[in-house]
Amino acid sequence: MAATTTSHLLLTTKDTHSENSSFYYDYDYLDELTFMLCRKDAMLSFGKIFQPVFYSLIFVFGLGGNLLLLVILLYYVPRRRMAEVYLVNLAISNLLFVVTLPFWGISVAWHWVFGNFLCKMVSTLYTINFYSGIFFISCMNLDKYLEIVHAQPYHRLRTQAKSLILSAVVWGVALAMSIPDMVFVRTHENPKGVWNCYPDFGGHGTIWKLFLCIQQNIMGFLLPLFAMIFFYSRIGCVLVKLRPPGQGRALRMAAALVVAFFVLWFPYNLTLFLHSLQDLQFFGDCEVSHHLDYALQVTESIAFLHCCFTPILYAFSSRRFRQYLKTFLATVVGWRLASGTTQNSLHSCSESSRLTAQEEMTGMNELGKRQAEGSSNKGDVEKLSWNGPTTV
């Protein structure tokens, strides 16, 4: 695998005996002859073309899309609700994440030319925003769950102050998970004049790589996926039961969010898990190793697409955001040439968005009342069925 994945995913190490400065996976369990026969030149040549190109595309689209999202949320949304606070943090996280990609692209195509300080900083920044982005998606799923399934009982929990506190906790947890990058990642020179940025675990490389891989599989995929499935299955049950306006579109959007998360992250996490098995000597065939190397490069790049797609999916699930997007586009494209007309248009769109927000809030309140009524009726029925046998 190429140098970028070697460094920021903490899965590979540099072979100090490489004649052409190529990167190899850590095959400490293989004997010297087998290691020398398992060359990675073709895979490295593929990575030097594929990864810089793909990273450049993700950088351009991710930077543009998240900047647009951030501008709209910060300048066109007068009062940000809980979900929009998480969306702002998600956009910031994605922006900081894509900023690291050009560094890794240059490192793959050439070598690390940015020094030891930036090596540590970029690796740490990558890990922080890798996890924080996934965590903020989970926060938005939780908020939607509380909004629909528990509209009345947990209404006081869905405040801007609470969302800011939870956002601070998310950033703190993500920072804590980047500590191995701060400690172990550094630059290495081999051969002379060629620098690379990757972690140095000393004599405990296999243990650390296994630990970090399991951490990523659990914290970065399994727990968020199971939480998402639980939240949206409960939301789906409520929507099917109460049949509010727009039920069909809401169900389709919920399914799209779950499917997008699974499609983007499952192949990558599965490949990481198989690499862990390889490090534990479950298999050491050179051909299998080559296939895993290619798969890791491709699935990693697919997973990074979450920076481009996920914020758009969550943003467009809100009618209020779509209204503000129209306002922004009207301003930029210049559909209203006169400044007074533009101000009137902005005021009109703002008023329309305010009414849309009131409609959404009214709809949620009605949904909560209907749920409360349903729970009350269910409680009466259960009480009657319980009291019946007792009085006999």
CATH topology of the largest domain: Rhopdopsin 7-helix transmembrane proteins
Percent strand equals under 5%
- Number of separate helices: 13
Arithmetic mean pLDDT: 78
The Rg value, from CA coordinates, equals 25 Å
Organism: Chrysochloris asiatica
Main location: membrane
Transmembrane segments: 53-76, 88-113, 125-143, 164-187, 207-232, 253-274, 294-316
Keywords: Cell membrane, Disulfide bond, Endosome, G-protein coupled receptor, Glycoprotein, Inflammatory response, Membrane, Phosphoprotein, Receptor, Transducer, Transmembrane, Transmembrane helix
Label this structure with key terms.
two-stranded antiparallel ribbon, globular, 392 residues, mainly alpha, transmembrane, G-protein coupled receptor, Rhopdopsin 7-helix transmembrane proteins, transducer, CCR1-9-like, disordered C terminus, phosphoprotein, single chain
Structure overview:
This protein has 392 residues and is mainly α. It has 13 helices and 2 strands, in the order H-H-H-H-H-H-H-E-E-H-H-H-H-H-H. It has a two-stranded antiparallel ribbon with strand order 1-2. It is globular, with a radius of gyration of 25 Å. It comes from Chrysochloris asiatica. One of its GO terms (molecular function) is C-C chemokine receptor activity. It is found in: Cell membrane; Early endosome; Recycling endosome. Keywords: Cell membrane, Disulfide bond, Endosome, G-protein coupled receptor, Glycoprotein, Inflammatory response, Membrane, Phosphoprotein, Receptor, Transducer, Transmembrane, Transmembrane helix.
